[in-house]
Sequence to fold (255 residues):
Amino acid sequence: MVWEAQFGDFVNGAQVVIDQFITSGEAKWGRQCGLTLLLPHGFEGQGPEHSSARLERFLQLCAQDNIQVCMPTLPAQIFHLLRRQIVRPQRKPLVIMSPKSLLRHPASTSSLADLSSGAFLPVIGDPLAPREAKRVVACSGRVWFDLEAARVARGLDDVALIRVEQLYPFPEAPFRAALDAYPQAATFVWAQEEPMNQGGLVPDPAPSQPLRARRAAFPLRRAPRRCRAGVRLLSRHRTELEALLTDALETPYEA
Fold:
């Protein structure tokens, strides 16, 4: 059974059902459930309710392998993930977070061979990165396409990009294998797709600028009181996106 939501506000109305039945039914009553939730994800010009299917809601519900939370980036991955959900002997609820932009992204494609053979990969390595890569960047979801485009544009041959397609249960063995492919890597970075409150309202980093000038530079209707000093829509400013990509791909980082 597949439960698809066109907008994220579906989760708001169904949160009690998700909490009390879908994620905890097996622990409370011993009843297995193979339900699949197809949820949109992220701001994509559809308004704030489109983003309310928040990933962290489901990750907070994860315990004792009760559900599966995945963010596939390719059509073949979604196909094999749904096929695995049907044929696997032990049934677990499956949550798929997938933004609509990948439905029409020119790089998010799969061949017929990828669909007719193979299996779902919880972790996708980087076949283009050399074994001598000095920096490893792991991420999930559509941000991989932004990172890949930035890496190609800047000619960063010493950066490897790893996609984590399944967040829970976390695929520890495949993830370690992907990291071991680059023994000379000195730094590891997790690139989060959406900063702070999922790419929404972010305080203005220039408090010394006059309030009127800040609001003129970053216009926003009905600014919340807690952000009265000035707010902006981070996703609408390309310079900020480039800064985030630079931080993930080039800035030194120490754990």
